[in-house]
């Protein structure tokens, strides 16, 4: 049985988001020694873009499968990634670290949910009335 292309894309992007979160954590520890700051910033921006793509793909998957919770989780991760980038740019070190840990945990959870509980794979598109409430 092959996976739906939207689901496969969601699983790949969610996993990439989690991996980028791990890379960011490692680079964050390296920043303590005063190195890797530019790389941490660039990869942080890339992480936000990947989280945004995951939210868009999760929306498309929600329309296909009706799995709203996966979309809400992905959208929330995009918002957290945006806040994380903003705090890093403002130099708010303590909240940046705390939210970074939360992002890492949420991104791993998103990847796990996308792989293990994606919703019905072969469902027809969900009617608009069902998405309203």
UniProtKB/TrEMBL annotation:
Organism domain of life: Bacteria
UniProt source species: Ornithinimicrobium humiphilum
Keywords: Membrane, Transmembrane, Transmembrane helix
Protein name: Uncharacterized protein
Segments traversing the membrane: 41-62, 69-88, 94-115
């Amino acid at each position: 049985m092959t996976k739906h292309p939207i689901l496969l894309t969601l699983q790949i992007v969610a996993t990439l988001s989690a991996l980028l979160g791990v890379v960011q954590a490692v680079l964050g520890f390296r920043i303590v020694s005063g190195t890797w700051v530019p790389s941490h910033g660039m990869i942080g921006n890339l992480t936000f873009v990947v989280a945004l793509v995951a939210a868009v793909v999760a929306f498309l998957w929600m329309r296909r499968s009706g799995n709203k919770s996966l979309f809400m989780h992905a959208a929330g991760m995009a918002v957290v990634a945006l806040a994380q980038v903003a705090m890093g740019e403002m130099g708010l070190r303590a909240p940046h670290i705390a939210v970074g840990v939360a992002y890492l945990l949420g991104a791993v959870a998103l990847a796990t949910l996308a792989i293990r509980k994606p919703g019905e794979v072969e469902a027809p598109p969900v009617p608009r009335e069902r998405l309203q409430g």
